[in-house]
Write a structure and sequence with these properties.
With 264 residues, the chain is α/β, with parallel strands linked by helices. The chain has 11 helices and 10 strands. A 6-stranded parallel beta sheet has the order 4-3-1-2-9-10, sandwiched between helices. Strands 6-5-7-8 form a 4-stranded parallel beta sheet, sandwiched between helices. Provides the (R)-glutamate required for cell wall biosynthesis.
Length: 264
């Protein structure tokens, strides 16, 4: 048994969709959530910048004495080498690739993500490592994160952007679409409407949450309490973050702190 918290981080509010899944599967755990609201979005950043950001955030998490860190940011997962760090890291991208390989029937998978994630071809590599016969079609959707961060997930502007990006995937006869950015489940309704009911949307956070649970059980690291707590940290604006956090988690968020992440 281990009462240390689990660290979860993302470029902004998107990782809250991962946090929600973790809390559903592991309600007794305490969590430290960090959203890099000052430097969001990561999608068009250089790999050098993203590696630096990841190092700062992981150093912050180590200071908080977490027992594991969940990288709830596909762009970061696609950029860093997990072996460079001396902490237990869970990777949302790997979970998404594994889920897609299991769900596809016709072996045609679509992936939507940030420019950096798509350019890295990480999803394609991971999916083909599992099954080389799966065809993977990727589309970068750079407008999605700014739209979601502004709280406009179901607005006309969201529909307009989704139509523009998803049109090419509709011609590929895919039966599975990976939401390759943790922000995107917040636009799932819009994406579902455009892609149609025959395309299964994959939220990588679902498998990820069970991967974390399995690890904690195997290592005897579960927190024995019934209900855990969450502490929120951001690097910049917290007003939009609070609004979205309360919407996603369905509870009041008041224990939120601004941290100077660059000092780490």
């Amino acid at each position: 048994m281990d009462s240390r918290p689990i660290g979860v981080f993302d470029s902004g509010v998107g990782g809250l969709t991962v946090l929600k899944r973790l809390v559903e599967v592991l309600p007794g755990e305490d969590y430290i959530y960090f959203g890099d609201t000052k430097r969001v979005p990561y999608g068009d950043r250089s790999s050098k910048e993203i590696k630096k950001f990841a190092e700062q955030i992981i150093n912050f998490m180590k200071e908080k004495k977490v027992k594991a860190v969940v990288i709830a940011c596909n762009t970061t997962c696609a950029t860093i080498n997990k072996e460079d760090y001396d902490v237990i890291l869970f990777d949302v991208l790997q979970a998404g690739a594994q889920s897609a390989a299991v769900f596809t029937v016709n072996k045609k998978v679509g992936v939507i993500g940030t420019t950096r994630t798509v350019e890295s071809k990480s999803y394609e590599k991971n999916i083909k490592n599992i099954d080389k016969n799966i065809e993977v079609y990727q589309v970068a959707c750079p407008d999605f994160v700014p739209i979601i961060e502004k709280g406009l997930s179901n607005s006309p502007v969201a529909y307009q952007a989704a139509n523009k990006y998803l049109v090419s995937l509709k011609d590929k006869n895919i039966d599975t679409l990976v939401l390759g950015c943790t922000h995107y489940p917040l636009m799932a309704e819009v994406i579902e409407e455009i892609m149609g009911e025959n395309v299964k949307l994959v939220d990588p956070a679902i498998k990820l949450a069970y991967d974390v649970k399995d690890y904690l059980i195997q290592q005897n690291l579960l927190n024995p309490q019934e209900k855990g707590s969450i502490q929120f940290f951001v690097s910049g604006d917290k007003d939009n973050f609070i609004k979205t956090a309360e919407l996603i988690l369905g509870e009041k968020v008041d224990n939120i702190y601004v941290v100077n992440i660059e000092k780490y």
